[in-house]
Amino acid sequence: MKIKILHLYPKEMNLYGDHGNVLAIKRRCEWRNIDVEVIEHEPDNKIPKDIDIIFGGGGQDSGQGIIEDDLQEIAPKLKDMIEDGVPCLVICGLYQLFGKYFQTSDGKKIMGTSILDVITNAGPERLIGNIVINSYGFGEVVGYENHSGLTSIGPNVNPFGEVILGAGNNGEDKTEGCRYKNCIGTYLHGPILPKNPKLTDFFIEKALERKSATGVMLKKLDDEIEEKAHASAASRPR
User: What is the pTM of this model?
Assistant: First the structure.
């Protein structure tokens, strides 16, 4: 069995080691003898069929501007896949653009896909530091945030988790990220997946479930190193 990962805009949207999330999925698949193909999507490319996981990272405002038109063009295909249950992880900049819009500090509105019921406005200062959340379904999740966007989530999505340490979506309501079906948007860089193996396996499991009529039982891996990395990150001050 093979899993196809669609990596959105790896050149423009790859701040703070976000590419490591794709590597984490790939390695945990390979350790289970699951073949993986990574398809990198850049502006003006076509979206192939039979995608199993969608991933997109963070980027600067300039990067968001570069991909805006192409993202609008492929948005219907992305939406159809997510509505069909394709697992998806979008970080920071692409989390914002999977929402309705991101309004920059100078008032420019970069339109999003409206796949996620969120809106983001640039704030007066950056929210930077280690972050720990109590996620809904995955327990404690750790990462690192560095964003000026202040995101508000609407009634059609759930928060990814509740902030224990850090700022999260906006530094006020204690929410972090959002979740819709099997799509998770979050501000957690780091990258997030290597230090949170349960979350990584969620994306693999959901991808395989869509390809199997008999159910999926992932082979258990030795996560001692990942758990130590998680514990170390969780113990760091803001």
Answer: 0.95
What count of Cα atoms within 13 Å lies in the side-chain half-sphere of residue 211? Answer: 17
Over residues 79-133, the pLDDT tens digits come to 999 999 999 999 999 999 999 999 988 888 989 999 999 999 999 999 999 999 9
Cα angle for residues 198, 223, 236 (degrees, 5° grid): 80
What b-and-e string marks burial along 53-66, b requiring 16 or more CB atoms within 10 Å of the CB? bbbbbbbebebbeb
**178 an active-site residue?**
no
For residue 204, give the nearest of 49, 98, 89, 94 by alpha carbon.
Answer: 89
**Catalytic residue (one of 7, 41, 147, 189):** 189
Q: Which of 92, 147, 178, 230 is catalytic?
A: 92
**Are residues 131 and 171 in contact, defined by beta-carbon separation less than 8 angstroms?**
no
Q: Which two three-digit tokens encode residue 12? A: 């423009």
pLDDT reading at 61 higher than 80: no
Q: Report the distance separating Cα 204 and Cα 53, nearest Å.
A: 8
Query: One-letter amino acid identity for 202?
Result: F
